[in-house]
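Weekly structure sync, notes
Attendees: PL (lead), two postdocs, one rotation student
Agenda item 3: pending single-chain targets
PL asked that the sequence for the first pending target be pasted directly into the notes so everyone works from the same version. It is reproduced below exactly as submitted, 221 residues in total.
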Amino acid sequence: MTARILVINPNCSDAVTRGIDEACAPLRIPGGPAIECVTLKEGPPGIQTQQDVDGVISPLINLVKSRESDYAAFVIACYSDPGLHSVREATGKPVLGISECGILTALTLGQKFGVIAILRQSIPRHLRYVGALGLTDRLAAEVPVGLPVAELADEKKTFGRMVAAGMQLRDAHGADVVVMGCAGMSRYRKPLQQEIRIPVVEPTQAAVTMAIGRVQLAWHA
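Predicted structure, written out during the meeting:
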């Protein structure tokens, strides 16, 4: 029986889930685990505050517990990694957060990583997380595009701001790799990398790639 990985979008936007599913497409390889993406219906339209993060922890735990026997690994597809450690306590299966995995992947691609955030108010929350990981010295900077999650699908509004943020991270802050700080940005990875000419990490892809390795090699926490 083919192993399955469940990728959970903790906000209630089906459009974001579709983008996450498209980002996972290159990782669906013959003989590899099946990758399925779901929307957490109890989630807010976008996870943009600490209260949003805290509010989805219990629903995430309940979802993972209800699906534990069906999946070999779980990915929490929100850059705040909501409930990551609580969900890990609730299951014996691997649970990966896209922020942690995106940052760890960036560390293999450059000395200083920069992050493109959605909103300025997201940055203090992200900085606390980078500090908890012990990686503040490797962070070049974090720059917002000034758009909520729901507006990221608007390419005319979003892509130019992402390019400007990426170039600012590269030229003003010395980043040699950029992490996209929201799962809703997934569609822009390739064109953004082409524009700013340094590696761009799409964090859901990073987390799912690690989940595949955990499943295939049977590494368990």
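Discussion points:
- The first helix runs from residue 14 to 24.
- The longest strand covers residues 4-9.
Action: rotation student to compare against the earlier draft before next sync.
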